[in-house]
Amino acid sequence: MKEFGGSAFFIDRDDINTDEIIPAKYLTEITKRALQPHLLEDLFLDGKEFDTEAEEFQQASVLVTRSNFGCGSSREHAVWALEVNDINVVIGESFARIFRQNMFNCGILAVELSKADIDQLFSLTGDGAIKIGIELDRDTVVAENDKGERVECSFSMNPFDKELVAAGGWLAYADQKY
Amino acid sequence: MGQTIAEKIFAAHLRDTPTPENMVLDIDVIMCHEITTPIAIMDLVDKGMDRVIDQSLIKAVIDHVTPAKDSKTATQAKIMRDWAKRHKIKDFFDVGRNGVCHALFPEKGFIRPGNTVIMGDSHTCTHGAFGAFAAGVGTTDLEVGILKGVCAFRKPQSMKVEVLGSLPTGVYAKDVILKIIKQLTVNGATDMVMEFCGPVVEQMNMSARMTLCNMSVEAGATSGLCLPDKVTAEYLWPFIQDEYASLEEATEDFSKWHSDPDAEYAETLTIDVSDLRPQVTYNYKPDKVKDIDELVGEKIDQVYIGSCTNGRIEDIRIAASILRGRTVADSVRGILTPATPAIYSQALDEGLIKIFMDAGFCVLNPTCGACLGMSSGVLAEGESCASTTNRNFNGRMGKGGMVHLMSPLSAAAAAVTGEITDPAQFIN
């Protein structure tokens, strides 16, 4: 199975909606690649515009956030915008249903952890990079910062969603089965 | 143990149970628009799988940006148009016959009680007003629906939302659903089917029920739905009169979908609306809702009346009741977009369009347009819009713009004064 994980980027906010992940004005694009420069372009954090040029963000392959990530519009463009930026895991307290399903339908991961576990992951942040790996065989998130501080959290993932990931997404799964 | 309406619909459409918690359903209606469908079509073509399970299940429309505003939107429309032609999709609605999907498709009688409905659009939950399970999905779900006629969902959990009392004058379904979202918050109903019931819902017409169900996704719900009854049967009568001997017989048949008295609900919410004030959003989330009294005086630059939430004839009549003989404030740009050609035509026949134009409104063709900031009324930075739409996210109607969601009556009052205004002062 595909490997999931890498450099993590942390966004400390609840309810990030899909209009923020990819603004509607880019929904007229008909290739996924065209979305690449616009991921989270309209996000505001603490009243300030999010810096999409930040190096840690550019290098990220894992996003860690808070609750109800991906709410609002059903646009799968939100997931594709992550994918074409090589982000294949989002870790949060909870997700909006459609966004969560879109992630698994594309064969990538929306990992739900408790608030306490998310707090623990955030506690690793400071200076320097944080690496996060997802061990799907033992339902575990392993995070480590530059200082060697390490956090392990276990998650539970819907078994069907896991099967979608193993199949490489819902289209491949459904084409074989139905 | 009894079943909820959602459980009954799931049981009647069950194709597969890959795990005890997941159900793959046969889908009755697969709706498509030009924003989320073209990438599915192109992917199917690329993979050599350009097929449609059954063209009669597909209902397709160009509605988000129409007529096309630029080359990109023209291309999206063309991909839809060519696909519909290639697969002989009969129910395809192009310029001149097109309107906002969630207003157009019910009007055509496409949605029936007990149906399963998907679309690559989060407001697909609107169709739950007919006692259907209707869910917004992403492009991959849509693609599989087009190809295989199925969609996967988790086992449904239902939230019973009982609306008690009676609606005061000047207070509408929009105010009720905003109040409910305020109470539940934006993820209070995640993974749930909201089942709206109680005397207030029973007395609502289909238009109001659609408004109610339309915004259930703003509380995170998979779908919202109402129990199909005589009101549903009357609305659908032109389309079902060959199937039933009488309205009573249709109503009786629809009642088979009603939740059993001993059905189990994951949650219950009871709300008495007898003293409900008009509701208005502030800030950037649809659960940020206040009684209008707390926001009176907030300056408004644009008023937008339309969308799948509140762009139907009943909504236009309600707004016109205030605009009749009055004019829009000098500082306000008023925009009306009737949600479908039939609604537009009806509004013309009733003299409502003239009322709007005499008041100084710009009347647009049916389109989703400015609701999601794609065209036809995008806000500039720092501007505010009193809007009958469904989302007030930061940047939704244009970067740096503020959207105050409200009923058509409250929006019309704001148009006249140029600020958020209690509509009571305009009602006799």
Helix content class of chain B: 25-40%
CATH level-four homologous superfamily name of chain A: Aconitase, domain 4
Please give the share of residues in helix of chain A: 25-40%
Beta-strand residue percentage of chain B = 15-25%
Biggest interface between protein chains, with counts per chain? A-B, 43 and 56 residues
Determine and state the CATH class of the largest domain in chain B: Alpha Beta
Assigned CATH class of chain A: Alpha Beta
Please list the strands of the largest sheet of chain A in the order they lie side by side: 6-5-4-1-7-8-9
Give the overall shape of chain B.
globular
Q: State the CATH topology of the largest domain in chain B.
A: Aconitase, domain 3
* Overall body shape of chain A: globular
Strand content of chain A: 15-25%
| Whole-number count of domains of chain B | 2
Summed up, what is this model?
Chain A is an alpha/beta fold.
Descriptive account of the structure:
The complex is a heterodimer of chains A (178) and B (428). Chain A is of the alpha/beta class. Chain A has a single domain, classed as Alpha-Beta Barrel (Aconitase, domain 4), CATH 3.20.19. Helix content of chain A is 28%, strand content 21%. Chain A contains 7 helices and 9 strands. In chain A, the strands form 2 sheets. Chain A has a 7-stranded mixed β-sheet with strand order 6-5-4-1-7-8-9. A two-stranded antiparallel ribbon of chain A has the order 2-3. The longest helix of chain A is centred in the middle third of the chain and has 9 residues. Chain A is globular and about 50 Å long. The two termini of chain A are 23 Å apart. Chain B is an alpha/beta fold. Chain B folds into 2 domains: 260 residues, Aconitase, domain 3, CATH 3.30.499.10; 146 residues, 2-Layer Sandwich (Aconitase, domain 3), CATH 3.30.499. Helices cover 32% and strands 20% of the residues of chain B. Chain B contains 15 helices and 19 strands. In chain B, the strands form 5 sheets. In chain B, strands 5-4-3-6-7 form a 5-stranded parallel β-sheet. Chain B has a 5-stranded parallel β-sheet with strand order 17-16-15-18-19. Chain B has a 4-stranded parallel β-sheet with strand order 11-10-9-12. In chain B, helix 2 packs across helix 5 and helix 9 crosses helix 10.
